[in-house]
Structures are given as C-alpha cells and as structure tokens.
Amino acid sequence: MSLRQGARIARRELRGGLRGFRIFLACLALGVAAIAAVGSVRAAIEAGLAAEGATLLGGDAEMQFTYRFATPEERAWMDARADAVSEIADFRSMANVARGTETERALTQLKAVDDAYPLKGEVVLDPPVPLAEALDGTNGLPGVVMALNLVDRLALEPGDVVRFGTQDFAFMATLVNEPDDAGGGFGLGPRSIVRRTALDASGLLEPGTLFDTHYRLALPSGSDLDALKAAADDRFGSTGGRWRDARNGAPGVAAFVDRLGAFLVLVGLSGLAVGGVGVSAAVSAYLSTKTSVIATLRTLGAGRGTIFWAYALQIAVLSAIGITIGLLLGGGAPVVLAPLIASQLPVPAVFAVYWGPLGEAALYGTFAAAIFTLWPLARAEEVRAATLFRDALDRARLLPRPAYLVAIFVAVAALVGSAAWFSGTATLTLWTFGGILGALVILGLAAVVLRWSARRLSRRSRGRPPLRWALASIGGPLNATGSVVLSLGLGLSVLAAVGQIDGNLRQAIQGELPDVAPSYFFVDIQKDQMPGYLGRLEDNPGVTRVDSAPMLRGIITRINDRPAVEVAGDHWVLSGDRGVTYSTELPDNTRLTEGTWWDADYTGPPLISFAAEEAEEMGLKIGDTLTINILGRDITGTISSFREVDFSTAGIGFILSMNPSALAGAPHSFISTVYADAEAEGPILRDLARAYPNITAIRVRDAIDQVSVLLSGIASATSWGAAATLLTGFLVLIGASAAGLGARIYEAAILKTLGATRRRILASFALRAVLLGLGAGLVALAAGILGGWAVSRFVMETGYTVIWPSALAIVAGGVVATTLTGLLFARAPVEARPARVLRGRD
C-alpha cells in the first residue's frame, strides 16, 4: 500500500520539473558517460582487430619458430593444409650507409620475405611501385624498402647503397604501410624489408643468431581453426612451434588495449564516486526544501514507507534520466568523433554503438546512484513530523536504520564485484576501491577537522572582520564544507596520484636507469668472434665494464613431466621463449638464495639455476624438473638452485641458467653489454661495426626513449580520465555554491544591516573560497602522495620521491577552483537589499 501511495505522490511532485536536480543529473551523466566512452572505444578497437585479424596477422593462421626455420616435416604439414604458405624471417640488424670515409648506422627491424608475401593486405610504398619490383633492386644489387623515419635518419635517396651484414642492397622506396605490422609486437627499430634469398651472403642468419621465423598460411574457406590449432599444438608444441590464427591477429595489442581500457574504467569509477558526492548533496538539499511537504504528509497519516517510496521513486526516475543522458553521450561521442579518434590510433577500429560497454556503464551508474541516495533518503524518513515543521532535517540521527545500511553495503559489494568481473583485474579493482574509500574517509575527517578549526580560529580573529566571517561561515552549521572538501578533494586526489605515479616512472626511466644501465647491448656475436671483440674493448680507456654471456632461447614445455601451463598457469615466463645461458661459475653480480651451484667440471645430468622471484610465483622448488625446448630439442633438467636476478639495471639477466655440458653442441651466439663514457660510445660502435658487420648494436638510451613514449601515452590517457573526475568535482562545487546561495544572501543582508561594506563582504566570500580550496588541496595532496607511493612501491615496484611541481599545482588548482565558483555566485549576495531579504524571512 505504501508503495502505491508513494508512487502517486512521486508522480505529482515530478510534474514540477527538474528544478534543483540539474547538478544531480550532470554529475551522474558525466560519470556514466566517461565509463561508456572508454568502453565503447575499447570495443571499437577489439572489433577492428577481429575484423582485420587476418590482415594484421598476415594470413589466416601462422606458425612461428625461434632461431630456426621449419623442418621439411613441419613445412610439409603446413603445405598440406594451406592453399599458400609465406615464409618470413624477422630480426634486428644494423643498417649501414657509407659516405666517403664516414659510415652512418642505425638499428632496424629487418623482415626477410619470400615472393608470396603478403598473403593478406597490401604493402604501400612511396613511390607507388609493387613490392616485388622494389625488392628486385637495381644495378645488380637486391632492393630494400625502409620506414620513413629510418629513411630520414640516414638521409637516403632512391638508389643509395645500404649494407646489412656483409651484403649490399639498393634503397628503392619508402615503406608507407605494412599490413601485418600491428601483429608483430614491440620492435626496437624502424622496419626494413628485403627478399629472404638476398640474405644468404649477408652472414646474418648463421646458426645460433637471434631471429624468428613466421609461416603465414592462407587456409581454405571453412577451415576448422580450433581443430588445426589443436593438431599443431599436439604435433609441434613440444618442438617450439607456436600457432596463432586470425581470431587474435595482434594478441599483444589486444591485451594492451584490454588492460588499459580496464584501468581507465576504474579511473572513471573514481569520477563516478566524485559525482556520487554531488548526487548525495543534491538529494539532501532537495529534501531540505520538502520539509513542510513531508511534515504535512506525516500529520495526515503517511508512514515511513510511504515517505521513503515517494522520494525514492522520484530519485529513481531522475537517476534513470541521468544514466540515459550519460549513455547517449558516452556511446554517441565515439561514433561522432570516429574520424578524429581513428586517426590517432595505430590499429583499426570499427566505431558503432556497442551495447556491452553501455550496459556495463549503466550498471555502474545504477549502483552508484543507489549507494549515494539511500543514505539521505533513509535519514529523511527517520525525522519526526514535529521537527520537520521546524525545517530541521539536519537534526535526524546520523546513521539510518540497519536495513538501509545493509542495502548500501550490498550495493557497494555489487559495484565492486561487477567492476572486478568486467575488468578482469580483481586485485587492481580492490586496490582502486580501497583507495577511493580511504580517500573519502580521509577527506570526510578533514572536513570535520576543518570545520572545528574554523570555529576555533573565528573566535581569535577579532579586528579582521572579513577573515572572521569567512571562518565562521566555514565552521557554521549551514555550510558546504563537507561537499566541497569531498568532491573537489577526491578529484584532486586522483589527479595528484596520477601525477606522482607518472613523475616517478619518468624519473626511474630517465633519471635513475642511465646512471647504472649499459651504453649498448651487442647481440649475435659468434663464438669465434668473442676473443677479438673483448680485446678491442679491453684496450679502450672509455670502457668501464663489459659483461657477456652465451645466449640461447628456449620454451619451457613441461614441469615435473606435466604440461607447464597446468602447473604454473599463465605466468609470463611460459608465454613465449625465454633466454637460456650456461656458466661454469656463479656470476659475480648475483647470489644464490637457495640450493647449490654445480662444480666447474660437472658433466652429469642437466642442472638448472632458476630466478628466485619467478620460481616463487610459479610454485617451483629445489628438485623440480623442467623440460625446455631449444631449437627443437627437448632438454630436461633438475632445479639445483635459485638465484637473484635484477632486471631493473638493464644489464644481462637470465631466468634460466644451466651447466655447460647440458647445452654442449647447441649452436648459439653471445650477447654482451658495454658500459662506457658518453663520448666513447660513438667510436666504440664504429670500431665494432667495421670489424664485425654481423653484430647488432642496441643503444639502451633508444630503448628507454621508446618505453618513455609508451608511458607518456598511458599517462596522458590516465590524466584525461582524472581530468573528467576533476570536472565532475567542479560541477559538485557549483551545485554546493548554488544550494548555499540563499544562506549567503541572508548572511550578506545581516552583515549589511550591521554596517559591513560590499567590499568587505566580497572579501569574506573570497577568503572563504580560498580557505576551502586550500584545505581541500592540501588534504588531496596528502591522499595523492600516499596513493602514488602505494602504487609505485607495491604495484610498479619502483622507488618513490615526491614530485613537488605536480604537488604544488594540485594545491593551486584547488584554490583556483573554489575561488572561481565562490565568486561566480557572489554577485547576488553582494547586491542583495537587506530590507527585502529580511522582510522575506520574517
């Protein structure tokens, strides 16, 4: 009965329009829109990757091998199942261009293709010539096409001679578009393409050198990809062969987009929490204007249930409107801005209305609206009719009845559970919600302390009327201190945490690593070249340190004679091939944490020393056996020790090390790191490149710069999400200022009656805004620094220092935001006529 009566009352009151609920709708709509937009863009990219999967992969399916070409048996298996097969070798090399006595050098990712390439898509060149014609070359030299940034760096013109290893090539055209580029993963150098047979005399594909081979398959229509994958894994999985197909043509890109999208949705939920503060404040303010209506209903016999449903249904309808507006904005904006967004994306995207992300955003918005409106609604029904006639909604008891507390808890749990489910990152979700909850608790306590301090200080500020009035207003019962500190403070907290995390990551990469990182990585050093290579560096006074190690690559296929994934799940060590080395002695820069190292003359069954941290994550222990496939051969060894491996120094580090006799006879090359003075780096590279043209040099600074660019993009996307949170907080500020406009007008009228000038009244309003902004900014700064430290320390596992420029900007932003909103609503109180205002209150 109470529900039916409440519905009738709600329907009548809704006829009055949306007055008083504009900020409510804006806060809810903006939070939902941000989440819907992020989800829609992610869905568009995923749809693009799925639609263009074959093009991105370069075929309907692919078999990949590490450091070897397919055996005749493997190639025959592929030929029997495909209409066409394309063979590609992919590796890093140095592009060398001689100009007189000087030689220009640059690192490139070299792709050696056959005549069938590309099976899918089209290679676009400038000038527009067919790829086969460009690779034919000119003047008796095979051809090469190269990416634009590499062409610019080497100042190439068509016909110029470029050397790879010991083979000369004629530069023929600039590579404009490579259809399968997105599926190739992270590369340290710009792309160059040559014909595979042209590399036979280059010395770059010797046994043991670092290269991958990809066999792209054009399959007959209707092929069963699941069955083919199962057959390939069963037949070649134990020999290092890896299958991919067009259903996931660019798995690295897809995984990155999925994780970044999930993270941005969690940032969007922070914005929704800020909007929830505004929603709660708007509901409280609205109910305060309805005290006489509620009092009348209570005296006419309306029970608690009727009152609750009357206003709960109104809020539900308005929440539905706000969520709908947010869905229209979040779902429509990516479609409208599709050309602009697509031009900034390195992968294809199909923009359309995707119901999955919209449903997810609507679910979040519904839970958030319930969480932040149940409390004020429940408190309203607890107030007695007599107190309502005295406009004393604030005198209701602080906590609602237990039933409502349980309902709020269930809504919070449902929101957290939904976020964890949809994002697929339960740990990050819990950390995010823990951070939001912690920030809200800190900000709530700060608001209480700020009000108490303002009341105390107002009594001691005699002789400074504007300051005293500002402090009294902040500490008074009818103030917006709580809403301002919560909304603005939470938005600034998110922005501050993002700023601190971004600053510390940049500092770790650009500031700390270069002090300890090597100047160069040199790879593909042949065993017979090592004595001469080391001799040249030992005689160089600019070289401070040289580390070197034999280098093989292997795939862990079994643990204790069981499939590795059954034991260790999807741990990253099992996701592909890993570096394997051997050593007689324990390296000087590491130490054993458990077990013993083998003797120098040990020749028994294979023994393994494994990285301690990764072993703990995978559940390995001393005595476990690992089967590693190296160049198609299975080697089973026993773990005899665990050791520390520090990858943060950018030096040589191996997950797996074995005794030398275990790898006897396996063809391999060496890798080396060179630590040198900056002025010695150029001469070192020139000297080694002349002596050993097959060696590839990777400048560590260039790799660090690439990572920095990637992090900049992530930080930029995150900052935009945090900015949306801050915008929501600004809207809440506007709502709080608008809600308190009547109180400010009445306050100004009293002050004018007592002789205060307009200038002093305006000064008191400005001081009030500055003090509130300063308080919110300082508390947000503390919360942001704490959050940044937690993420840097426990998630990123980096050092942490406070980035003060970013920190001070946050405080300044809080002051500016509150001052602007305070002055925005200052005109009406300053210009109010005391007689008219006081007569209206009489």
Automatic annotation (TrEMBL):
<feature type="transmembrane region" description="Helical">
    <location>
        <begin position="260"/>
        <end position="287"/>
    </location>
</feature>
<dbReference type="Pfam" id="PF02687">
    <property type="entry name" value="FtsX"/>
</dbReference>
<dbReference type="GO" id="GO:0005886">
    <property type="term" value="C:plasma membrane"/>
</dbReference>
<feature type="transmembrane region" description="Helical">
    <location>
        <begin position="765"/>
        <end position="791"/>
    </location>
</feature>
<feature type="transmembrane region" description="Helical">
    <location>
        <begin position="471"/>
        <end position="498"/>
    </location>
</feature>
<feature type="transmembrane region" description="Helical">
    <location>
        <begin position="398"/>
        <end position="422"/>
    </location>
</feature>
<protein>
    <submittedName>
        <fullName>Drug:proton antiporter</fullName>
    </submittedName>
</protein>
<dbReference type="InterPro" id="IPR038766">
    <property type="entry name" value="Membrane_comp_ABC_pdt"/>
</dbReference>
<feature type="transmembrane region" description="Helical">
    <location>
        <begin position="720"/>
        <end position="745"/>
    </location>
</feature>
<feature type="transmembrane region" description="Helical">
    <location>
        <begin position="803"/>
        <end position="826"/>
    </location>
</feature>
<keyword id="KW-0472">Membrane</keyword>
<keyword id="KW-1003">Cell membrane</keyword>
<feature type="transmembrane region" description="Helical">
    <location>
        <begin position="428"/>
        <end position="450"/>
    </location>
</feature>
<keyword id="KW-1133">Transmembrane helix</keyword>
<feature type="transmembrane region" description="Helical">
    <location>
        <begin position="361"/>
        <end position="378"/>
    </location>
</feature>
<feature type="domain" description="ABC3 transporter permease C-terminal">
    <location>
        <begin position="723"/>
        <end position="827"/>
    </location>
</feature>
<keyword id="KW-0812">Transmembrane</keyword>
<dbReference type="InterPro" id="IPR003838">
    <property type="entry name" value="ABC3_permease_C"/>
</dbReference>
<feature type="transmembrane region" description="Helical">
    <location>
        <begin position="308"/>
        <end position="341"/>
    </location>
</feature>
<feature type="domain" description="ABC3 transporter permease C-terminal">
    <location>
        <begin position="267"/>
        <end position="379"/>
    </location>
</feature>
